[in-house]
């Protein structure tokens, strides 16, 4: 039992394969490992090493000499044929030819020669790199040499405890058998036996007759003068034996590091009880043994198997032993939910591809038994999808190509038709501003359409705008590491959307709106009011220019109607420090509910007495010229 338990627990759950490997290839590795019965063979290696002190498993690779070092890259398709197990008494290690290369094999035999009486591989000389070697109890150097470089059986260090346990159980069984006695007293028995002859024969016949008619209910037919008595009983003769046997069992359990519930199927209280904590401690010990003794050789076996199957393993390939503690349905559902949530979050964030998300879910199904229906066809179809952001980039590329063609046509039209608006402007040059190609048409302070520009003005190359055929107009602010604002322009007094103006390099929203108002509030041909909100990133602006509907406002328009600034254009406010470009910026006025709003959320004050500073005066000719 002790030999079988350790081997069974170390191999019964198998391993999970880790790394950037296609789930289909992982399933092939699992299937072929089962087909070659690798885990049964590995179990035998552990069992014989525990029993005899050592054993090896030989990797069977067709077409290669066993006395040569193993080179995994030379294994061809279909050459790996599984493992063959040999205990220490079936092979002779080369004690005079040891491994001299630095590593875990240093000082161990370099070759193992199979004895003539073996069932297979007779007289074969096997290189150490082709075997999976395991020992029972590891020994120091001198004792190891006495054991031909092997360990010893696990039973050698607890032999006296096993003898004590066996003696106790055997003695207890005999004591229980003899502890219950029944006696039958017959008057003159000694005389009848001494006389012999007919008297003795009559006695024997009477005893047989009594046994013949003895009832299964325990009724016995005897003479009235005879005496029938019972003595002792199991409880009387075996008192204290159970505790004694349990103590011997606990000693064996402690020496083997196997809980009593796993070793004997018992559940006593105390250190070796069958509580959850004891089993978890035992499983942790098994996991430690797996990582110490099995991880490297099993990894090598899977690498050889993958090479034989034509599967290319990534650099991060590895194995992880599955936990022995079996999860219940609630625990599986909890883990599945956590995995699904984590995968979904990184998938939605664009960190991983959809195919990678499906692979992660499918791989987790071996633990949770959820997402098992994700097929390889679904994963293959997802792999054909473009990575996160590529679809948008492809669309942007198409839009950009289309806009470049339109820009070329537009520039050609501008050269052929100098009367158009863009041809009237004096182009100052091309610049790269905040990631955009900008044509600066007018510098700050120049006159355009009868009004002085408060900031440099131009347009974004290879773009479109609400005015089909024209490119997107823009103002260039004083802070080129600042923010980008999109201003929706509305016509006065209709309040209808007109076009967009992009403001590049402004420190805040107020400065961008101030430039817009100072220019379009003084234009002779038309008057516009603007609305904007939070700044946009260069990436968002690029996407909107490529895919957005440029005939509509960037921001949702409000339902507030436009109110004229002054009923009489010849009048203005007097002595008001807040008045600028026909827009009142008085904070108190802005919070006065009686004052109507414009589309950009600012208050528009008509000379109607709402403002304490209001005192209309006539606009002089000099002021009008200014």
List keywords for this structure.
seven-stranded mixed sheet; 23 strands; alpha+beta; 4 domains; disordered C terminus; three-stranded antiparallel sheet; 20 helices; single chain; 626 residues
Q: Overview of this structure, please?
A:
This protein is of the alpha+beta class. It has four domains: 2-157 and 290-309, no CATH class; 328-386, no CATH class; 394-547, no CATH class; 558-626, no CATH class. Helices cover 40% and strands 17% of the residues. The chain is built from 20 helices and 23 strands. The protein has a seven-stranded mixed β-sheet with strand order 11-12-15-16-18-17-19, with helices on one face. α6 (189-195) crosses α7, α13 (354-368) runs antiparallel to α14 (376-383) and α15 crosses α18 (538-547). The longest helix is centred in the middle third of the chain and has 34 residues, at 276-309. The termini are far apart. Residues 270-274, 417-427, 558-570, 577-582, 592-610 and 612-626 have low confidence and may be disordered.
Compute the number of structural domains: 4
User: What is the makeup of the main sheet?
Assistant: 7 strands, mixed
Percent strand equals 15-25%
Q: Count the helices. How many?
A: 20
Shape: elongated
Mean pLDDT: 77
Helix coverage percent? 25-40%
Measured on Cα atoms, how large is the radius of gyration?
Answer: 48 Å
**Would you identify the regions where 5 or more consecutive residues have pLDDT less than 50?**
270-274, 417-427, 558-570, 577-582, 592-610, 612-626
- Secondary-structure content class: alpha+beta
State the strand order across the main sheet. Answer: 11-12-15-16-18-17-19
**How many beta strands in the DSSP annotation?**
23
Distance between the termini: 107 Å
């Amino acid at each position: 039992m002790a030999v079988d338990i350790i081997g069974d627990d170390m191999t019964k759950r198998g391993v999970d394969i880790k790394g950037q490997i296609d789930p289909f290839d992982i399933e092939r590795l699992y299937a072929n490992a089962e087909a070659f019965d690798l885990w049964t063979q590995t179990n035998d290696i552990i069992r014989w090493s525990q029993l005899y002190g050592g054993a090896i498993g030989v990797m069977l690779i067709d077409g290669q000499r066993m006395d040569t070092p193993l080179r995994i890259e030379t294994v061809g398709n279909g050459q790996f044929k599984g493992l063959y197990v040999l205990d220490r008494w079936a092979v002779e290690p080369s004690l005079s030819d040891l491994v001299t290369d630095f590593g875990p094999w240093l000082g161990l035999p370099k070759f193992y020669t199979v004895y003539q009486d073996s069932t297979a591989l007779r007289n074969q000389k096997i290189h150490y790199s082709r075997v999976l070697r395991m020992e029972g109890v590891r020994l120091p150097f001198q004792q190891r040499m006495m054991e031909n470089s092997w360990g010893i059986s696990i039973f050698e260090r607890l032999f006296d405890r096993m003898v004590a346990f066996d003696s106790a159980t055997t003695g207890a069984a005999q004591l229980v058998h003899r502890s219950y006695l029944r006696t039958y007293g017959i008057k003159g028995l000694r005389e009848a036996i001494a006389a012999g002859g007919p008297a003795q024969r009559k006695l024997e016949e009477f005893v047989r007759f009594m046994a013949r008619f003895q009832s299964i209910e325990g009724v016995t037919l005897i003479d009235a003068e005879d005496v029938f008595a019972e003595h002792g009983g199991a409880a009387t003769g075996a008192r204290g034996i159970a505790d004694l046997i349990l103590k011997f069992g606990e000693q064996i359990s402690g020496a083997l590091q196997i809980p009593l519930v796993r070793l004997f199927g018992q559940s006593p209280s105390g250190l070796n009880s069958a509580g959850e904590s004891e089993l978890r401690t035992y499983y942790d010990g098994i996991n430690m043994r797996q990582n110490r003794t099995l991880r490297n050789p099993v990894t090598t076996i899977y690498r050889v198997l993958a090479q034989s199957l034509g599967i290319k393993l990534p650099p991060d390939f590895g194995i992880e032993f599955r936990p022995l503690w079996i999860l219940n349905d609630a625990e599986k559902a909890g883990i599945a939910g956590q995995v699904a949530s984590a995968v979904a979050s990184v998938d939605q964030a664009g960190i991983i591809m959809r195919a990678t998300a499906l692979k992660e879910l499918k791989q987790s199904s071996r633990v949770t038994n959820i997402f098992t229906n994700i097929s390889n066809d679904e994963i293959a179809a997802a792999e054909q999808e473009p990575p996160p952001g590529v679809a948008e980039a492809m669309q942007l590329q198409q839009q950009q190509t289309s806009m470049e063609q339109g820009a070329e046509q537009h520039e050609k039209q501008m050269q052929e038709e100098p009367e158009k608006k863009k041809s009237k402007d004096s182009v100052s040059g091309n610049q790269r501003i905040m990631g955009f190609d900008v044509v600066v048409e007018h510098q700050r302070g120049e006159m355009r359409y009868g009004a002085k520009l408060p900031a440099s003005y131009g347009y974004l190359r290879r773009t479109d705008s609400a005015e089909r055929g024209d490119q997107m107009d823009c103002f260039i602010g004083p802070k080129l590491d600042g923010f980008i604002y999109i201003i929706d322009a509305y016509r006065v007094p209709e309040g209808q959307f007109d076009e967009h103006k992009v403001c590049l390099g402004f420190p805040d929203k107020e400065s961008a709106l101030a430039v817009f108002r100072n220019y379009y509030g003084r234009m002779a041909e038309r008057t516009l009011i603007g609305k904007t909100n939070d700044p946009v990133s260069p990436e968002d602006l690029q996407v909107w220019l490529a895919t957005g509907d440029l005939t509509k406002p960037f921001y949702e328009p409000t339902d507030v109607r436009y109110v004229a600034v002054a009923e009489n254009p010849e009048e203005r406010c007097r002595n008001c420090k807040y008045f600028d470009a026909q827009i009142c910026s008085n904070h108190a006025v802005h919070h006065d509910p009686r004052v109507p709003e414009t589309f950009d959320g600012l208050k528009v004050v008509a000379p109607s007495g709402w403002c304490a500073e209001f005192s209309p005066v006539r606009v002089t000719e000099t002021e009008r010229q200014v």
